[in-house]
Amino acid sequence: MLHGDTAAGEDGGFQKNSDPALSAIEQLLPLLTCWDAEQVCRFVNEASLDWFGKERLAVSGNMKLADYLGPVLYAQQLPFIQSALAGNLHIFEASFPVPGKPLCQALVSYIPDLQQEKVMGFYIHFADIGYLKQSRKKHLAAEKELLRAVIEIQEKERAGIAELLRDNVNQLLVYVNLMLQGKMMDENNRKFTEDMMHTIQQAILELNNLSNQLYPSGLSMLGLLPSINNLLSGYRKEYEADIQFNCNDHSIEELKNEDKLSVFRIIQDFASLLLANYSRLIHIGLSYHAFGLMIRIVYNNRGQAIDKSGSEFRDIQSRINYYGGKIQEFQRDENQVFITQLVFSMRE
């Protein structure tokens, strides 16, 4: 154990051992100290001395842990100190303050020094993981930026197709319909013309509905909740399904348009995915509060598993990931429950 790697000097202090292993430990970046049962220092490495601004001769064999850590940090760590002296191991993440130093995010280990089942003291190991936290933040930021780019590309493609349907195909059908109206004067062609006009009108309605599903142009004018209600109303008629929808707070309309579009897409993709899998009972609830949203969907999927490998579910997952949400799924009686929570940035 490390307490055996030091030797007492003539002045009663502790001197460095010439052991190569100890020399290597001295150079470790993590902060490593060893304390006896009375909380007096038995070993301290150079990194720890440097961080706390202490001199070796003043610390090794002389200084108590309370004086080494200072009153604030010692009070924070006292429960772990007492537990380590009782023989318990502790490993956890924590931020700890040191006067004159930046706040350190560390992986902290309290390791009892056990000899023949007797606690002789304990080791404290502080490993700075701040750089790992920063690296993780950068990774998440890059991942979010990639998701945002993918979502934007998808929306531009959908908007382009919707515009094509509205402005080109739709206008062409309207023109043909007007031309047919002129043929109504010919009694020989009246029945044929009426049937053609009816078919074209139905095609126009279906194209408008399709283009609105591709890109809900009314979202910015009507709002999120009316757009969702219009979407689900079309699904009810098309699939003869029991689809219910409610939202607890209409202030959700204060969200930015891109955030409202993402909520619309999650509900649209999930509803169409469920309807394609023969579910005819879907209850959707939105709980909005302080830029946080919980989407709760209860459905009866008649025992058929949702295809999570398809593009619709991947799109749902991508949008949820973008807003830092996670999916929870569980069964309640005969129904399945899907829950996710999204966090939106405040409007600038």
| C-alpha geometry | elongated
**For the residues shown, what is the average pLDDT?**
77
According to DSSP, the number of beta strands is 12
Strand line-up in the sheet with most strands: 4-3-7-6-5
Describe this structure in words.
The protein has eleven helices and twelve strands. It has 348 residues and is an alpha+beta fold. The protein folds into three domains: 2-128, Beta-Lactamase, CATH 3.30.450.20; 136-215; 219-348, 2-Layer Sandwich (Heat Shock Protein 90), CATH 3.30.565. The radius of gyration is 34 Å and the shape is elongated. The model is unreliable at 1-18 and 20-28 (pLDDT under 50).
Give me some keywords for this one.
single chain, 348 residues, Beta-Lactamase, Heat Shock Protein 90, five-stranded antiparallel sheet, 12 strands, 49% helix, 24% strand, elongated
